[in-house]
Design goal:
Oligomer: single chain
Order of helices and strands: HHHH
Helix content: over 70%
Strand content: under 5%
Shape: elongated
Length: 92
Amino acid sequence: MAEGQDIELIQQCLQGNSKSFECIVDKYQLPIYNIALRMLNDADEAEDITQIVFIKAFENLQQFNTKYKLFSWLYRIAINESLNLQHSRRRA
């Protein structure tokens, strides 16, 4: 049932209802933060990654394929952004 609710929230958001995206953020903010925190071991950087994940998700929401789970998509964005930050740390 949660997947159907996520799809409904996405559709509402694409129709211009910004409150729907707030519901998505509220639902997934803590799990995404925890993923970034485990990877980066830095609370401030994990907060930054969490914000980046939701910004990117909002900007690319129309490209989300509803046959997949929303959390899987957000999770992948969080992993990629955390890896990017780790690589940039090593270069510096």
